[in-house]
Amino acid sequence: MPHPSPQPASALPAWRHCGRDSSPEDLSGCQGAYVPGRTACLTHLAAAERDAYLAGLTPSSSIDHRGTSFTPSLLRDLIDALRDPATGRCRISTARFESATFEGDAWFQGVIFEGEAHFGSATFEGDAWFEEATFESDAWFHAAIFTGDAHFGSSDFTGDAHFSLTVFKGNAHFELTACKGDALFSSAAFKADAEFGWASFESDAHFGSVTFNGTARFLRATFEGRAWFNSTAFKGIAAFGSTNFTGDAVFGAAKFTGEAGFESASFTGDAEFGDATFQNVAQFEAATIQKDATFERVTFERLAILGPLVCAGKMKLSGAEFRGPVTLMLAARLLDCRRTRWSSTAELRLRYAVVVFAQAVFEYPLTIATEPRPFASSDGELSEAAFIGEPATVRMMYLDGVDAAHLVLSDVNLAMCHFTGTVHLDQIRLEGDCSFNRPPSATYWRHWRPVRFTQRRTLFEEHIWRSTQPAAVPGWNTRVSRDLYVGPAQLAPVYRALRKAFEDGKNEPGAADFYYGEMEMRRHDRTGPTRAERGLLHGYWLLSGYGLRASRALGWLAAAMLITIVLLMGFGLPDKDPKQEATGIVPSGGGRVTFEIEKNDPKNPTGLRVTGKRFEKALNVTLNSVVFRSSGQGLTTAGTYIEMASRVTEPILLGLAVLAVRSRVKR
Predict the structure, then answer these.
(1) Alpha carbons within 13 A on the beta-carbon side of 660
(2) Cα torsion angle, 531, 518, 556, 476, sign
(3) The dihedral of CA 644, 648, 649, 653: what is its sign?
């Protein structure tokens, strides 16, 4: 049933009214509706006529007293006339009290409104008592004014409860109230405290654009439908502890001036706080959200304690601004922090979450860490049933556009992280077990030759690049991609920055992997290095894996030694060791004798060359060449050059092997 619009004070009411007590300022006079069959309102009826009217009323009668002024005694007489003697409770069918004025306390306690109850634009100058009242149809209190306290505790609204534009100047008590229909409080104003503890809203509850000047308590309230608090102003404490939101909870653009407490709150649907402002402490300890939580463009001006809480869906913080210290303890599938601004210290302890941190700005140290154990509150561990079977490790996805100078990552999986575009990446701190991607571990055949990649820490961008190459082999990880293409020229500086970060953290073995990646990107870069430089890098890679693969250098050393031995046995060792000959002249006078000793030139071998003795000599020459020493063995001319070559190459290969071992054990 449509309700009449509130009438201005100077306008004539839409009903036939009494008109008594008119004044120059108000020519319409009393606006009380005619009592049926009379020409005056209930207030201005003669005593005999009033008694006759009240005597004619029976329980479940309909009454129409719009615009009427009620004193406490007159209202009591009316209620008593409608009281059911069998139950002792007043029963009213349709009640019309629009624009009525209740001069003292208004007692409707325990009244049963069987039809619609209309109190639109009514004024309650004292306390209004509707405790344990039952509204079996719609209840209209739109634009009503409660000057004193409004008591609706334990009342039951079967139909819709209309409190839009209502003004509560005193305390509003709705404890244990049950609303089976929609609860409409849009644009209402609560000047003092509003108590909704243990209230039950079985349908939608609309509190949009409401102003709570005092404390708003919804402790242990239940919202089975949607709860609308968009654009609501909480100027005092907002207490939603242990509140149960079965439907979506919408706090978009709400403003929390006082403390906001959502401890142990349960959100079965989505929790939406987009564009909200928290000017004081915001607490969400032990809260659980079974779907998505939206905090996009939210402003936290002071301390924010978001958790420990469990969000089975996505936690959206993109565009949020944290002006005070932040402690975020969260178990969620996705944490979206794009374009967030952190103006104070922040600690994010997470479980299960995939983290998106692109274009985030933070001016103080910010730590993102994997929490090894389930979160616990004062009531025990929080349930993580939604994540059974999933790894609890946090996975970082995007860091592009971030200044990493104050960023600390601890025990975070970086296998799918995009680092390209990160500023001051060399100053990032990686602690604990921060794992990276790996090349394919299997051996693949390409052009009839085996291909096996060196196992090392790799960037996800390298996986994307390698998977796009014409000769790419399977195994490069491309499961997550934003169609972002970067080449070796962009990846080399990223590897270089991460190498420096590991070196500054005294992790030389870890830095070696990123040095390898940097050299790989330089070797494959077709735009920067010259062909000669790329050739040198290719040789460096081939001989020793850029001085990082001892097995490769030792393999080449063994091959070089074997070749040297074979060449020496075949061409370098003479057939026989040259012998010295002495010749001299003895003067006839028996004077001084002079001997001239010459050594024969070594003769090239002609017979059997592969003998144990020749192998021993060749091995001796080769081993001395490795340590850059001369064996003193007589060699042929070819052998001399072979020894010279081995004394240059083999010590270099040995040095590369030693360098590779050192890079893996240095701390």
Answers:
(1) 22
(2) negative
(3) positive
Query: Residue 242 and residue 222: Cα distance in Å, rounded?
Result: 9
CA distances from 460 to 192, 357, 407, 478 (A): 57, 16, 20, 8
The number of residues making up the chain comes to 667
Residues 6+ apart with CB under 8 A from 7: 13, 14, 31, 99, 121
The phi, psi pair for 500, rounded to 5°, reads -65, -40
Structure-token pair, residue 400: 């592009």
C-alpha–C-alpha distance, residues 477 and 648, integer Å: 42
Taking Cα atoms as reference points, which of 565, 590, 561 lies closest to residue 650? 561
Over residues 316-333, the mean pLDDT reads 93
CA 107 and chain centroid, separation: 52
pLDDT in tens, 164-209: 999 999 999 999 999 999 999 999 999 999 999 999 999 999 999 9
CA distance 220 to 262: 10
- The residue with tokens 């606006």 is 31
- Mean pLDDT on 366-386: 88
Instruction: Provide DSSP, 455-496.
Output: P--B-HHHHHHHHTSTTPPTT---SS--S----HHHHHHHHH
Please say whether the beta carbons of 154 and 177 come within 8 A: yes
How high is the mean pLDDT of the chain?
84
- What span, in angstroms and rounded, lies between the C-alpha atoms of 457 and 468? 20
455-458 contacts, C-beta under 8 A, 24 or more apart: 456/513, 456/516, 456/517, 457/510, 457/513, 457/514, 457/517, 458/513, 458/517
Q: How far apart are CA 293 and CA 272, in angstroms?
A: 6
Cβ distance 399 to 460 under 8 Å?
A: no
Of 654, 656, 611, nearest to 629 (Cα)? 654
Residue type, 279: Q
Question: pLDDT by residue (tens digit) across 147-166?
Answer: 999 999 999 999 999 999 99
Residues 6+ apart with CB under 8 A from 31: 7, 13, 17, 18, 66, 67, 99
Closest by CA to 92, choosing from 122, 112, 119, 110, is 112
CB–CB of 176/156 below 8 Å? Answer: no
Write the DSSP symbol of residue 156.
Answer: E
Count other C-beta atoms under 10 Å from residue 325's C-beta. Answer: 17
Question: CA 348 to CA 328: how far, in whole Å?
Answer: 5
Say which amino acid occupies 156.
D
Q: Tell me, what amino acid is at 505?
A: G
Place of tokens 């008590």: 173
pTM above 0.85, yes or no: no
